[in-house]
Amino acid sequence: MLGTFRQEALLVANPSPRSQQFASLVAQQPDNELFRFSLAQALVAENRPAEAIEHFIICANKKADWMMPRILLGKALLGLGRRTEAKPWLEAALQLAIDQTHEDPERELRALIAEL
Q1: How many angstroms separate the first and last alpha carbons of the chain?
Q2: Domain with residues 16-114, CATH architecture
């Protein structure tokens, strides 16, 4: 019973989804790629991947060596059935994983690309 009360109290204290919080920050600082990345992640977590796409693209285009937006963008596109669009993003992420010696992402990306 106490656990239910705590959950309800948290909902009352913070009624807006994370995406709204980060959307507000992005509106204030549209060039801040970290706010955009957090907004995109929140949108994906809220099962709104289509809305996250543009923010992942902005992040990926802003930093040529940033692997994570490319991975998450590729996965979001795959989840939306947009395999052809996902492939170049996943391949770019794979190259970054190799260049930066990130072995776990490299294995994961190779497996995802092999399924395309």
Answers
A1: 48
A2: Alpha Horseshoe (1.25)
